[in-house]
Amino acid sequence: MGRMQLVRGNVACAHAAIVAGCRFYAGYPITPSSEIAEEMAVLLPKVGGVFVQMEDEIASLAACIGASIGGMRAMTATSGPGFSLMQEHLGFAALAEIPCVVVDVMRLGPSTGLPTAPSQGDAYQARWGTHGDHPSIVLAPASVREVYDLTIRAFQLSDRFRTPIILLYDEVIGHMVEQMELPPLEGMGPVWREEPAFLPEEYLPYAAGEDGVPPLVSFGRGVRYHVTGLIHDESGFPTQDPEKVSSLLRRLHEKIHRNLDEIVSVESFLLEDAEVAVFAYGIVARAAREAVRKARAMGMRVGLLRPRVLWPFPEEAVREVARRVRGIVVAEMNLGQMVYEVERAAGGRAEVVGCFQVDGRPIPPEIILDAVIPFCTPPSVRSPLKGQEVQGGESR
Amino acid sequence: MIPDVRQYLRPARMPHILCPGCGHGIVLGALLRAFHRLGLDPDRVALVAGIGCSSRLVGYVDVCTLHTTHGRALAFATGLKLARPELMVVVLTGDGDGLGIGGNHLIHAARRNIDLTCILFNNAVYGMTGGQLAPTTPQEGIATTAPYGNIEPPFDSCRLLMGAGATFVARGLAYEPLALEEMIARGLAHRGFSFVEVLTDCPEYFGRYNRLGKGPEMLMGQKRRATEIGEILASKRFVSYAPEEMGHAPLPLGILHEEERPEFSQTCWQMASRGERA
Questions:
Q1: Rounded distance, CA B198 to CA B136, Å?
Q2: pLDDT tens digits for range A353-378
Q3: What is the pTM of this model?
Q4: What is the full DSSP assignment across B141-188?
Q5: Closest chain A residue to the Cα of B42, Cα to Cα
Q6: B133 and which of A218, A300, B145, B192 could share a cystine (Cβ 3.0–4.6 Å)?
Q7: Under CATH, domain B17-277 is a member of which superfamily?
Q8: Which residue in the set A48, A63, A238 is minimally distant from B75, CB to CB?
């Protein structure tokens, strides 16, 4: 076992990647993600892995995909501007079904924005950023420990579903230092992705079984086949046959959406008797938890719903909560992204309001608490921000 | 005696998408004969390509084939070569793919001296999209996006690659497939980044727009403009891509540069095994 130590979020990500069997990293420096690249540059050569700094983010993800086709687990990390440049290759990896992990440490945008300040402005880009219709799996850790756990989870999901996985967190999580036990890496060596032990005479690289995920054999293992970003049939070669086109796109969706139980993950905090729920992810969920505690101390029944997996969206969990509460406060460091998803899933069963801040600082608990109070019965309480009495319940 | 290279092809993928008179098939033939000459095991060869007519050729070759995004083939190939240095990784790219959208990756692959062989099919135009201006279109050449004649100077890709640090640089003609085969075979055998530019034709667009005739006339035109001196390899004969009336600096043919430098994938893996011991 490791010893308790102070660990930075980005460093935890790199260590977890090594433990998960990542042996290839290609990246391009960008604040606030660079510590991941720096740590991987230190760690990878020690475990028989390859680190390469590419000429840009486009090349970084391309190199990861190339290495993954060669059988290595691969990762890259970036922030907003670089994440934008990676979108085309996220689509390529999704269509060609090549596993890889992309970390987006969010900073405030658009454009160069505030490079050293946190935001959650990429929540939708992580889902819909690349062109074309495709599913996305996006994990959103809220602590250093969870960065570690979800990085490992990202590699598992990527192998399992043959799809790129996005690990999405913000500058505060990336740079925050928290105590955790960091398992030692001594004695680790080269790792290759597990391959099917037995192959049929004719390997059809895109013929999937029941679960919709075709087995992946890497280049150089004695099987010759074709990988393309064109729409292809089971053989991997391009096709324009409408039936085959549709069946590929539907399979890509279904392999994710039929397996939601394996993917979706939420944390419920004090929701059992809540009449108001806060929906928050990443660093904002930390403030939301504090707001919930404060509200409880003031006699209000407030709980927290926190998705660990942002996409696919936890519809079922939100719908279930919406049935029981009067209102849902969606707190985000943007001007409203996930709030629309919550609204859609709530379907009018509960009132959904947004609580947004986009000034480059994390949202403090007081602002979330202030958004919660108008939904609560019975007490009229003193607003922590306005310093005046706010009427609960009736006002909405 | 020209060897039978059908063992390297995927007959089920035929017919191919190339237009009548296109020289790309001649270049592919030279590549496959070079494979044959070196006795390459198709299981140990990966062919990586971007987007464009030349990039589509990988689908017809029975090795591990990776058809990527526009301009980025070399970046994908870099990852693949680093993960599997034992593979012979060859990149097919066009002049638009490799020198336009993918120019950044081309110079950096050359700088790293990673052991890839890059064949750049230069037909001076964007063919797949219908004949638009390319970074290789000669000045005054007509393209759909240069209807009054090209006002930009073109790249000399071999000079660019030498400047970027490629350790093997050659230029050949689709008109001279045997010399081309020799150049490609030497490029494949070279340990480090090998770059072979091939002047080929696009009769359908560039030829038609510039009244250069059909395929054979275009290829012969390129040959005619190669000055007739000496042996083909390392001869530095010169060729001008442009129609004769468009006067501009001619390009040398043959193996233009060859040197030994530490190869990147090997250096990477040496560092990995050094680190493991540390």
A1: 12
A2: 999 999 999 999 999 999 999 998 65
A3: 0.96
A4: --BTTBTT---SPPP-HHHHHHHHT-SEEEEEETT-HHHHHHHHHHHH
A5: A224
A6: B145
A7: Thiamin diphosphate (ThDP)-binding fold, Pyr/PP domains (3.40.50.970)
A8: A63
